[in-house]
Design goal:
Blueprint: H1 17-31, H2 36-64, H3 67-93, E1 106-109, H4 111-114, E2 124-130, H5 136-151, E3 156-162, H6 163-172, H7 174-181, E4 184-188, H8 190-205, H9 209-227, H10 245-259, H11 266-269, H12 275-299, H13 308-317, H14 328-361, E5 377-378, E6 385-388, E7 391-394, H15 399-402, H16 405-416, E8 420-421, H17 423-430, H18 438-441, H19 444-454, H20 460-469, H21 472-476, H22 478-481, H23 497-512, H24 521-526, H25 533-542, H26 553-568, H27 572-583, H28 587-594, H29 600-610, H30 613-628, H31 637-654, H32 663-677, H33 683-690, H34 695-700, H35 703-718, E9 724-730, E10 735-743, H36 748-758, E11 763-770, E12 775-783, H37 789-807, H38 813-821, E13 835-839, E14 847-854, H39 859-869, E15 872-882, E16 885-894, H40 903-927, H41 942-954
Parallel strand pairs: 2-3, 7-8
Antiparallel strand pairs: 1-2, 1-4, 5-6, 6-7, 9-10, 10-12, 11-12, 11-15, 13-14, 14-16, 15-16
Helix pairs in contact: 1-2, 1-3, 2-3, 3-5, 3-12, 6-7, 6-8, 9-10, 10-14, 12-13, 12-14, 13-14, 14-17, 14-41, 16-19, 16-20, 20-23, 23-25, 23-30, 25-27, 26-27, 28-31, 29-31, 30-31, 36-37, 36-38, 36-39, 39-40
């Protein structure tokens, strides 16, 4: 790449070749060229030069921010060291006075090193090219150089081949062919290198363009699939991921191979890229190199995954600042994803240009990118578009200019005719984005077409993703443009906000088409009866549209919905429905996961908010789609069961079927049902057992579970067990139940949750009941971990035994938890401000305490222990985890069964809980690394940071 006009490489500040050669000559003069002392001195010198050069490269990276410059500087450092070692070996260690024709060698760089760029932790890939077969001299020189590099601590990949072997292997092995394509002369015999290049072009490259392109694109696709097949993963691989450096490398390899160029700038002259697109290529490459170099310097290794652990430090190193609604790290990651999107744009444009060129050179040629223009045909009903081998393309270059609505129509036709997109069509879309203006946004037909795409029965998510990748979606809907490439710095969300919204539409489409009946039976049953289908799709598409704003995104999103829905052609009624769904899109999942669904007040309050069965149905479907689209592993059957329970209970209330019968009568009915279910028991045993349970148990626990509990308690009593446990697993709910029988104790739940933490079990919910004879019957629901029922039951049984051991005093929780977490990494990149809320309005009978903080092993045990210390009786606990954040809700009463109404006592409870929650926060702060600190004397240019911040804010 050519130097930018305002930057210079300043290579002599990294290492001066003349100075290094002089120091080597001085060592040879002092110790003799081939002595052990000379080798030790040479090694010490190259180690010093390498360390100082890399440190200087790091300082310059902070100073000028040039990623590509940094990579070229480190490459220059390696070149100088490699050449100096070769010269010393051939002149002083294995000197040949009159070398034969076979005692010649070329040292070449291949791989990334061959491109003239190296990251701080990159491998050094060397190819030693010989004229004929190996000789003792060549083997000795190669070995001496390699051992010196290895002793320096470098990772070196190497091969020694003659020219014939290079050519032969290049024909059969695409990896070797790519390496030779990128080979760069470092030192040795130039004529040998020139001969290799000439023969490679003539004997390998000529007439093999389609084969090479096919292999490289297939290799890229396989790499993308392995990395997650999306450029919007929130912990991307900067080198190998979609939109990363390897994608730019692939473009350059193909261009170099097919067009016989040496520099990307030559593609402008070939009309493959415009000058603007070339600049975009250079900026994307420079940014990705800057990120990668910072990552390697920070971690002191070849770290390619931009993980949460280092994102804050990289953002700081690149000069990003916090902004209202977005933290510095979120702005940095938004910039990263915008660059990854640019790489995708360049790939489409490049492939379109390549296809045009290939069609001109060899009309009708077969291959992955060949075009059969003769087979293109007009699409019925339009003169502006043609179908070309199952792909939609433009009939002529002025289609968009004549009618900008055709930009939206292109995607609409692709949907209704189920066509793929010709790369040339997408290239012209990207180059015509200026036509997507206010006039087009307000065009009635354009909005009708867009709504048709969004609500399509075919593949709406795929078309929306193509619109987004081409830059149309963010231009046509500016509010969507603001969340393009935006990430949320937490472990809960796996994708950027725009990708999450499109994936949510994809889940809805699958349910709508009847493809999710097993996974989502209730949503699949409800959706055919939803009258306002268009409103549901729009709400799903817009539910997170206001993320990244200083205010609550649900409230701001409702405001955006009221603005956009009339534009899309929705009626006032539909608009208000969409706005309500957007504003309440988190409500149902939060109530289901963090409230006691056996408490009538919970259902009553939720029903008062929902108010109609239609809104309840739509909110249920939206909640399912939202959770499913967050990322793999977030949805499970337990969450589905909670949502279904909340739906059915609320449906009863809204339809007037909720029982108004008094609790006393309902309790009597429950006792009668249990009595009949235990009819095979002796009358005396049955009568005694029915006296064990209080009203809350009989009304909250389903009859089926009551019968199981009866058998469990009966068997434990027969065996004379003081402590007993039983397990039951449910694969569909992805939950495993551990039911415990134990003498009641104020600290029982604390002990049980501590034992679960010690056993590594993640608690999802807890039901706590007391029997009339002073025993506790507690059911702990833990998240399922193993796919096989027998394996999961064995795991749960071992957890149950651990709980029994702790209750019996045979194991001590703090010791077991400490042993369990010994050696685990404690540094975590996230902070969650601890919060405690105490409410007496959420339940008629209980005080509800809700805590929010950073999750950690043993947290629930510590919190329940504090509640026990405060003489609070826990009726139920509901545990909700959002990545690194936990929201736990406890329904409590005092020891005489009353709510906690005294204000002073509430303040004391909140203070005690906050002290426990904040303890981890303090420990984390003490353990957190200091971050990426700019080298002393660094003068990072503010304007570079300002540009980066502006890019992150502005989007495209």
């Amino acid at each position: 790449m050519p130097d930018s006009p305002d930057k210079t490489l300043r290579l002599k500040e990294i290492v001066d070749p003349a100075v290094l050669r002089a120091s080597f000559d001085a060592i040879a003069a002092e110790h003799g060229g081939a002595t052990t002392q000379a080798r030790q001195a040479i090694l010490a010198e190259v180690k010093r030069v390498n360390a100082e050069g890399r440190e200087r490269a790091r300082e310059m990276l902070f100073d000028d921010g040039g990623g590509t410059l940094c990579a070229r500087r480190i490459c220059h450092l390696q070149d100088v060291i490699t050449e100096a070692l070769y010269d010393y070996a051939s002149a002083h260690v294995y000197r040949v006075e009159n070398p034969s024709t076979s005692e010649r060698m070329t040292v070449t760089a291949v791989g990334g090193y061959g491109r003239g760029t190296l990251a701080p932790g990159s491998d050094i890939d060397l190819l030693f090219v010989l004229p004929y077969r190996k000789t003792p001299w060549s083997e000795q020189v190669v070995e001496w150089i390699l051992y010196m590099l290895w002793d320096m601590g470098l990772k070196v990949g190497h091969a020694t081949r003659n020219v014939d072997e290079c050519i032969r292997l290049s024909r059969s092995d695409m990896t070797i062919r790519t390496a030779i394509l990128e080979a760069r002369f470092i030192c040795g015999e130039w004529t040998l290198f020139a001969n290799l290049g000439e023969r490679f072009d003539r004997e390998v490259v000529e007439d093999s363009g389609p084969e090479f392109i096919s292999a490289k694109l297939a290799e890229r696709d396989a790499r993308h699939k392995k990395a997650g097949d999306t450029r919007y993963l929130v912990e991307p691989n900067v080198k190998e991921g979609k939109g990363g450096l390897r994608d730019l490398n692939t473009l350059f390899w193909i261009a170099k191979y097919f067009y016989h160029i040496r520099d990307t700038a030559e593609l402008v002259g070939l009309s493959v890229l415009s000058r603007r697109e070339l600049k975009l290529f250079e900026k994307a490459e420079d940014f990705l190199w800057a990120v990668r170099c910072h990552m390697h310097f920070l971690t002191n290794k070849a770290e390619e995954r931009l993980s949460f652990d280092i994102q804050r430090d990289i953002a700081a190193g690149l000069g990003y600042q916090d902004h209202p609604g977005l933290s510095a790290v979120e702005r940095f990651m938004k910039h990263y994803f915008l660059v990854a999107k640019d790489v995708g744009d360049l790939t489409r444009i490049f492939c379109a240009g390549l296809e045009d060129q290939q069609a001109k050179q060899a009309p009708g040629i077969s291959g992955v990118i060949s075009r059969f223009a003769s087979r293109a045909r007009k699409i019925p009903g339009t003169l502006d578009f043609i179908e070309d081998k199952g792909r939609i393309n433009l009939a002529d270059p002025d289609v968009f200019k004549r009618d900008p609505v055709n930009i939206i129509r292109l995607f609409h036709l692709a949907d209704i005719r189920e066509l793929e997109f010709h790369p040339d069509a997408l290239k012209r879309v990207t180059r015509s984005l200026r036509l997507v203006n206010a006039e087009l946004r307000n065009d009635e037909e354009a909005n009708r077409l867009f709504l048709s795409i969004l609500t399509s029965k075919r593949r709406p998510a795929i078309i929306l993703r193509r619109m987004n990748e081409a830059g149309v979606l963010g231009r046509f809907i500016p509010e969507f443009g603001k969340i393009v490439s935006m990430m949320q710095f937490n472990m809960y969300h796996h994708y950027t906000v725009d990708e999450h919204l499109i994936r949510t539409v994809s889940v809805l489409s699958g349910i709508d088409k009847g493809q999710e009946t097993q996974e989502h039976p209730l949503a699949s049953k409800l959706i055919p009866g939803i009258e306002e289908r268009e409103a549901l799709y729009v709400a799903v598409f817009l539910h997170d549209i206001a993320k990244g704003r200083p205010e609550d995104h649900s409230v701001a999103g409702a405001r955006v919905a009221r603005k956009l829905c009339p534009r899309f052609g929705l009626s006032p009624h539909q608009t208000e429905l969409v706005a309500w769904l957007v504003e309440e899109h988190l409500t149902m999942s939060m109530v289901a996961q963090s409230r006691d669904l056996n408490d009538r007040k919970t259902i009553s309050d939720f029903a008062d908010n929902v108010r109609s069965l239609e809104r309840l149905k739509m909110l249920l479907v939206l909640s399912v789609c939202d959770i499913r689209a967050v990322g793999p592993g977030v949805w499970n059957g337990w969450k589905g069961q909670l949502l279904r329970t909340l739906y059915y209970e609320t449906e009863l209330m809204l339809s007037g079927g909720f029982s108004e019968v008094s609790r006393k009568v309902r309790t009597a009915h429950a006792l009668e049902a249990l009595d009949q279910a235990l009819s095979d028991w002796p009358a005396k045993d049955r009568k005694a057992y029915l006296k064990l349970h209080y009203e809350p148990y009989l009304l909250a626990v389903p009859l089926e579970e009551q019968v199981l509990h009866a058998s469990f308690i009966r068997e434990a009593d027969k065996a004379g067990k003081r402590f007993a446990s039983t397990v039951r697993t449910n694969a569909f709910h992805a939950i495993t139940e551990i039911t415990l029988l134990s003498p009641d104790h104020p600290r029982l739940l604390s002990i049980v949750t501590g034992a679960c933490a010690a056993a590594g079990a993640n608690i999802a919910d807890a039901q706590v009941f007391t029997t009339s004879d002073g025993r506790a019957l507690d059911t702990i629901l833990i998240n399922r971990e193993l796919p096989d029922d027998e394996d999961e039951l064995r795991r749960a049984a071992s957890i149950g035994r651990m709980i029994e051991e702790v209750l019996a005093g045979e194991a001590h929780i703090p010791e077991v938890i400490a042993r369990k977490n010994r050696g685990k990494r404690k540094n975590r990149p996230f902070t969650v401000k601890p919060q405690v809320a105490i409410s007496n309005t959420l339940s008629n009978k209980f005080t509800v305490i809700e805590i929010e903080c950073l999750d950690r092993p043993g947290l629930l045990s510590e919190v329940t222990s504090v509640l026990s210390d405060l003489s609070l009786d826990i009726a139920s606990a509901h545990i909700t985890t959002f990545g690194e954040k936990v929201v736990d809700t406890f329904y409590v009463r005092d020891l005489v069964g009353m709510k906690i109404t005294n204000e002073t006592r509430q303040i004391n409870i909140a203070a005690r809980l906050k002290a426990v929650l904040a303890k981890e926060d303090d420990e984390l702060r003490d353990r957190m690394p200091s971050g990426m600190i700019a080298p002393q004397g660094s003068n990072r240019r503010p304007r570079a940071s300002a540009r980066a911040n502006a890019r992150a804010d502005a989007g495209k």
